[in-house]
């Protein structure tokens, strides 16, 4: 279920302002509010994809030179930049763990990334929840015991959100960690799945994701073992459909893995070429 | 044979940054190979974020800034009942440099935001952002996210902001008799820029050398930073000199002269990026 939170100042003078903003928003996006046909009779979706088709996924390793690792991912119109610093000395002594590294994740959303401008503070509960989900995902995958008493910072910057920002963030974080040379047991590949009229959909865009009657889930797997490291779903759905959605999303994760892996190989090849031609 | 006490250039740079730097300047060149009055390569790409009303990405050397413009309707302020207003916000998060820590915006981010706001008063036609006096006006938010901080963020931010404002399109909005603002579906209205204003920053090293466009490794070594903002009629709009080092009148004049040259370069860049769309 999509939850809509609206911050309204309690002062009466804000009322006019609020009403003006609301009406503008409704006026501009009324077409999105009405029931959109998410899957047409020919089996095509609003953006022309088939049900089991991913959006165009392109990624770039180390776009930023100053960080230890960085990666930029574009999945359709969703654009995410991940930056990794570390393993480095911990910022706070309370975070020092004598047997493993502490992973710190910050999930930052640019105010212009979504349809309506929202300035979110860093302590926004929803962002903290997403950051925690990413942190827990990587806690089990990064070999933290190799870097005791240190900290690995993962900063995720969502620049444009057209649905599936969490999956794109996880994929970008994986690439950035690979770029930083942080030892991991496997890639973490994430993908979303949804369901419209008992037809499972892969990789939801913003319109599909924000539609109230579409259940959606985000799953992250370790492609080699096929184990699930993250699964998020907060919609009511029949268990048969759930299985269908989950299987499709996991299949999507494997496709994502192929793209991530080839981009890592390409970038390593470039690096090797640079080193040998020196 | 090298002495065991000899440093590699990289180690020398880290241990004695100012000495390392001085050795270069004595040869009239900077460590990155630039001449003193040379700016870094500047790239501008407008309209890259489709969720924003207007957007631009600017790279000056490695310094990268993304600017997104979002417009909302709000009640005009009491002292300017027939004008919209403008809210710039610069984010220098921990991802753009290892120097910044997570937390509330630091001093530099706040200073840059305030300077951008001050400059905006000179070039945005605020009265055109009014929908209905005393009732509704556009409030234009500009969020500037720095992705890579390699010195001279102010120049990058001002260029990104101007390009994004030029790129921005608002819907036509009218206020109905019931007091509700209705906006059209088409994003057609541009934000009028009265005159383009661009910034150029220079650093003063030991009161002698004037260095254009200092990068992050140069900034901490400089006595003072001078930012000159000029428009297309060669008028000055702001001159900020920070860090307290001394600076002669000739040096200031030289800064203004170079800022004018820089302005023509950047406005050509703005024109060509606008023509691409």
UniProtKB/TrEMBL annotation, chain A:
Subcellular localization: Cytoplasm; Nucleus, Nucleolus
Alphabetic keyword roster: Cytoplasm, Exosome, Ribonucleoprotein, Ribosomal protein
SUPFAM superfamilies: Ribonuclease PH domain 2-like, Ribosomal protein S5 domain 2-like
GO molecular function: RNA binding
Keyword Ribosomal protein: yes
InterPro entries: ExoRNase_PH_dom1, ExoRNase_PH_dom2, ExoRNase_PH_dom2_sf, PNPase/RNase_PH_dom_sf, Ribosomal_Su5_D2-typ_SF, RNase_PH
Keyword Transcription regulation: no
Residue span(s) of domain Exoribonuclease phosphorolytic: 53-183, 186-252
Entry superkingdom: Eukaryota
GO biological process, one term: nuclear mRNA surveillance
GO cellular component: cytoplasmic exosome (RNase complex); nuclear exosome (RNase complex); nucleolus; ribosome
Pfam families: RNase_PH, RNase_PH_C
Family recorded in the similarity comment: Belongs to the RNase PH family.
Subunit structure: Component of the RNA exosome complex. Specifically part of the catalytically inactive RNA exosome core complex (Exo-9) which may associate with the catalytic subunits RRP6 and DIS3 in cytoplasmic- and nuclear-specific RNA exosome complex forms. Exo-9 is formed by a hexameric base ring of RNase PH domain-containing subunits and a cap ring consisting of CSL4, RRP4 and RRP40.
Name under which the protein is recorded: Ribosomal RNA-processing protein 41
Organism ancestry: Eukaryota, Fungi, Fungi incertae sedis, Zoopagomycota, Zoopagomycotina
Automatic annotation (TrEMBL), chain B:
One GO cellular component, as annotated: nuclear exosome (RNase complex)
Gene3D superfamilies linked to this entry: GHMP Kinase, N-terminal domain (3.30.230.70)
Entry annotated with the keyword Magnesium: no
Localization per record: Cytoplasm; Nucleus, Nucleolus
An MF annotation (GO) of this entry: mRNA 3'-UTR AU-rich region binding
Gene Ontology biological-process entries: exonucleolytic trimming to generate mature 3'-end of 5.8S rRNA from tricistronic rRNA transcript (SSU-rRNA, 5.8S rRNA, LSU-rRNA); nuclear mRNA surveillance; nuclear polyadenylation-dependent rRNA catabolic process; rRNA catabolic process; TRAMP-dependent tRNA surveillance pathway; U1 snRNA 3'-end processing; U4 snRNA 3'-end processing; U5 snRNA 3'-end processing
Keyword line: Cytoplasm, Exosome, Nucleus, RNA-binding, rRNA processing
Pfam families reported in the protein's UniProt record: RNase_PH (PF01138), RNase_PH_C (PF03725)
Transmembrane segments: none
Domain called Exoribonuclease phosphorolytic: residue spans: 38-171, 196-260
Keyword Cytoplasm: yes
PANTHER family membership: EXOSOME COMPLEX COMPONENT RRP43, EXOSOME COMPLEX EXONUCLEASE RIBOSOMAL RNA PROCESSING PROTEIN
Family statement drawn from the similarity comment of this UniProt entry: Belongs to the RNase PH family.
Protein name: Ribosomal RNA-processing protein 43
């Amino acid at each position: 279920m999509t939850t809509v939170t609206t911050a309204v100042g309690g002062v009466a003078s804000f009322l006019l302002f609020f009403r003006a903003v609301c009406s503008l928003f409704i006026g501009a996006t009324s077409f999105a509010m009405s029931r959109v046909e998410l899957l047409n009779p020919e089996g095509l979706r609003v953006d022309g994809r088939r049900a089991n088709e991913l959006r165009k996924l392109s990624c770039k390793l180390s776009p930023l030179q100053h960080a230890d690792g960085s990666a930029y991912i574009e999945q359709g119109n969703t654009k995410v930049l991940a930056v990794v610093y570390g393993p480095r000395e911990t910022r706070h002594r309370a975070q020092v763990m004598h047997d493993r590294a502490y992973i710190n994740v910050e999930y930052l959303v640019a105010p212009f990334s979504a349809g309506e401008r929202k300035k979110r503070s860093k302590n926004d509960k929803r962002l903290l929840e997403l950051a925690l989900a990413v942190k827990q995902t990587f806690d089990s995958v990064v070999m933290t015991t190799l870097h005791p008493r240190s900290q690995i910072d993962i900063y995720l910057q969502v620049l444009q959100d057209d649905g599936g920002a969490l999956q794109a963030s996880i994929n970008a974080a994986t690439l950035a960690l690979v770029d930083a040379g942080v030892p991991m047991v496997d890639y973490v590949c994430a993908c979303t799945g949804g369901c419209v009229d008992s037809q499972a959909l892969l990789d939801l865009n913003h319109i599909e994701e924000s539609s109230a009657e579409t259940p959606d889930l985000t799953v992250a797997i370790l492609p080699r073992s096929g184990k699930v490291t993250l699964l998020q779903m907060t919609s009511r759905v029949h268990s048969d459909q759930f299985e269908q959605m989950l299987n499709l999303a996991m299949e999507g994760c494997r496709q994502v893995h192929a793209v991530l892996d080839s981009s890592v190989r390409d970038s390593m090849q470039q690096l090797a070429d640079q080193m040998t031609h020196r | 044979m090298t002495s065991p006490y000899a440093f590699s250039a990289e180690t020398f740079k880290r241990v004695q940054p100012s000495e390392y730097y001085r050795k270069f300047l004595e040869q009239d060149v900077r460590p990155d190979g630039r001449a003193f009055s040379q700016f870094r390569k500047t790239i501008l790409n407008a309209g890259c974020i489709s969720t924003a009303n207007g957007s631009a990405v600017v790279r000056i050397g490695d310094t990268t800034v993304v600017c997104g413009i979002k417009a909302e309707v709000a009640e005009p302020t009491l002292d300017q009942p027939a004008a919209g207003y403008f809210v710039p916000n610069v984010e220098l998060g921990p991802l753009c440099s290892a120097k910044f820590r997570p937390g509330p915006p630091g001093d530099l981010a706040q200073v840059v935001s305030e300077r951008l706001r001050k400059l905006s008063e000179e070039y945005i036609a605020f009265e055109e952002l009014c929908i209905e006096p005393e009732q509704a006006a556009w409030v234009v938010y500009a969020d500037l996210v720095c992705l890579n901080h390699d010195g001279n963020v102010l120049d990058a931010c001002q260029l990104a902001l101007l390009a994004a404002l030029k790129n921005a399109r608002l819907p036509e909005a009218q206020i109905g008799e019931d007091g509700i603002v209705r906006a059209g579906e088409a994003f057609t209205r541009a934000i009028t820029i009265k005159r383009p204003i661009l910034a150029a920053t220079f650093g003063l090293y030991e009161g002698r050398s004037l260095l254009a466009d200092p990068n992050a490794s140069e900034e901490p070594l400089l006595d003072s930073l001078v930012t000159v903002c000029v428009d297309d009629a060669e008028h000055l709009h702001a001159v900020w000199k920070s860090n307290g080092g001394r600076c002669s009148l000739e040096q200031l004049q030289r800064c203004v002269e170079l800022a004018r040259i820089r302005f023509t370069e950047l406005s050509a860049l703005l024109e060509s990026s606008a023509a691409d769309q």
